[in-house]
Amino acid sequence: MAWPTDEIVTGELVSAAQFNRLEALLASDTLDATAAEIEIASIPAHWTNLRLTVRARCNDPNSSQTLRVRLNGSTASYDSHWITQQTTVVSGNSSADATYLTAGELPGDGAGTGLFSQADILIAGYAGTTRHKTMTGQAFANWGTAAGSAIQYLVAGDWRVTDAVTSITISPSAGSLVTGTEVALYGGGAI
C-alpha cells in the first residue's frame, strides 16, 4: 500500500504498519506558573524513539543558563558533547560523568523580553535494556537583539545506563522555568 499523495481524506485506508511509523503526542505541558523543573513520567515502552521538544526561558538574573535533561531522575553517568555557533564563531565542548545531559541554552531575566529558546531532542531505543541511552538534538537561544546575541547548538549525549527510559526531566542550570515554558514528548516507530 502506498502513502496517499495528497492529504488523507475520509475513506482512504492506511495500514497499521504505516500508521505506527507516525509520531504520536504522548505528553505536553505549558507552565502557568514558574517551576524548578518539568518531569514527564510513566512513559510507555510502546515506541522505538522519543522526540522531546522544548520552548523555554528561566528567571535567573543572568542572560542565559544551560538547558538540562535527566532520564529516570538519575543524577549520574551522563556524557555530553556540543558544538555551538554564535555569529561566525564555531566552538565545541563536552562534559564527562556529569549529573545531566546538556541540551542547549535558556534565556534568563537578563535577556530581552519575550525571548524563549527552542530545543528538539531525539532519544533512540529508549525502551531497550541492553544499551546505553543516547541523545542527539539541536537547540537555539536568543538573549537580545544585538548581533551575536543568539546561539545555535548541536548536541549529543550518552547516559551510561541500560535501563529503559520511563521519565524525562528538564530544568535550567540556575533559576526556575518561567510561565509559558512548553514541553512536548512524541513517540515514533512502534515496536
CATH structural architecture: Sandwich
* CATH fold naming: Jelly Rolls
The coarse overall form would be: globular
Low-pLDDT segments: 1-5
Tally of extended strands? 12
Distance between the termini: 20 Å
- The helical percent reads under 10%
Radius of gyration: 18 Å
Strand order of the largest sheet: 1-12-3-8-9-10-5-6
**Main beta sheet:** 8 strands, antiparallel
Helical segment count: 1
Please give the structural blueprint.
Elements lengths: L15 H5 L3 E7 L7 E3 L6 E10 L7 E8 L6 E9 L2 E10 L2 E7 L9 E8 L8 E10 L7 E10 L8 E5 L9 E9 L1
Antiparallel strand pairs: 1-12, 2-11, 3-8, 3-12, 4-7, 4-11, 5-6, 5-10, 8-9, 9-10
Task: Explain what the structure shows.
It is globular and about 50 Å long. The strands form 2 sheets. It has an 8-stranded antiparallel sheet, with no helix packed on it. Strand 5 and strand 6 form a beta hairpin. The chain is built from 1 helix and 12 strands; from the N terminus they run αββββββββββββ. It is mostly beta strands. The protein has a single domain, classed as Jelly Rolls (Sandwich), CATH 2.60.120. The longest helix has 5 residues.
Keywords:
191 residues; mainly beta; Jelly Rolls; eight-stranded antiparallel β-sheet; four-stranded antiparallel β-sheet; 12 strands; disordered N terminus
Can you give me a brief rundown of this structure?
The protein has 191 residues and is mainly β. It has 1 helix and 12 strands.
